[in-house]
Amino acid sequence: MISIILRPFQSYKYLLLQLTQREIKSRYKQSFVGYAWVILNPLAQLLVYSFVFSVVFRFPTHDIPYIIFLYAGLLPWGLFQGSISAATQSLVENAPLIRKVNFPREIIPYSVVLAKIVDFLVSALIFIGFMIAFRVPFSSTTIYLVPLFFSQLLLTIGISLILSAGNLFYRDIQYLANLLLMLWMYMTPVVYPLSLVPTQYVWFYKLNPMVGILEGYRSALFNYPFEWTIISWSLAISCLVFLIGFFVFKKSDKIFADIA
Q1: CA-CA distances (angstroms) from residue 260 to 11, 81, 113?
Q2: What is the per-residue pLDDT across 72-108, written as a single tens digit (0 to 9) for each?
Q3: How many CB atoms within 10 Å of residue 121?
Q4: How far apart are alpha carbons 201 and 67 in whole angstroms?
Q5: Angle 173-186/145-169 helices, nearest 10 degrees?
Q6: Predicted TM-score (pTM) of this structure
Q7: Pick from 186, 184, 182: which is nearest to 197 by CA?
Q8: Which of 75, 123, 155, 225 has the most CB within a 10 Å radius?
Q9: How does 179-216 read in b/e, with b if 16+ C-beta sit within 10 Å?
């Protein structure tokens, strides 16, 4: 099982790299500012949300400037939402390749997620600049960002595999995915702290695996207390979703060439 999962990264790593590079180059081809959209888009969101929720509505963020608190949520959420949204359409957009070439089809959604990770890393450099500018100290707990990131990555890839395969059969899944992602964002403490959620609903919120991941990010960055229970839950769900997504995808890919 593990060898099958790792196969694209071992035997087909050159193809994976080529598809990732193509994804990065084609996304901003013939655009006016090109790759600067990677920075401009999240910055625009950041400014709007910061004004609304730090001036109009004031959220408690435990002495952390709201713009930093917000960026710490928007950054991983942007990777999650952008990866799933783009990966859902990836098999349809690469239909000619699927019909003509025999290779592990999961490479296509993988390449989309990898391209989004490049965007994420660029935006992360801007976030580090914000941390320095606002004199927010880096905590020793920052090291926990690594396992949290891989937990998020497993969840993202698992969902991407399921939706990309489903969208090849039913093309309206891409529209449903975008709607669900928008609703999912507001059910996740991206722009507001979890402490604002009424006590009777907190248990329901914690079932959402992205809650544990985002709360873990903020705990690691700002030295908040870790809620290991929901972080462990998020990790377990992420692993389960990945395994289910991979199994569903591999069971379906035998007929991808026939319906692409």
Answers
A1: 24, 24, 21
A2: 999 999 999 999 999 999 999 998 889 888 888 999 9
A3: 11
A4: 26
A5: 150
A6: 0.90
A7: 186
A8: 155
A9: eebeebbeebbbbbbbeebeeeeeeebbebbbbbbbbb
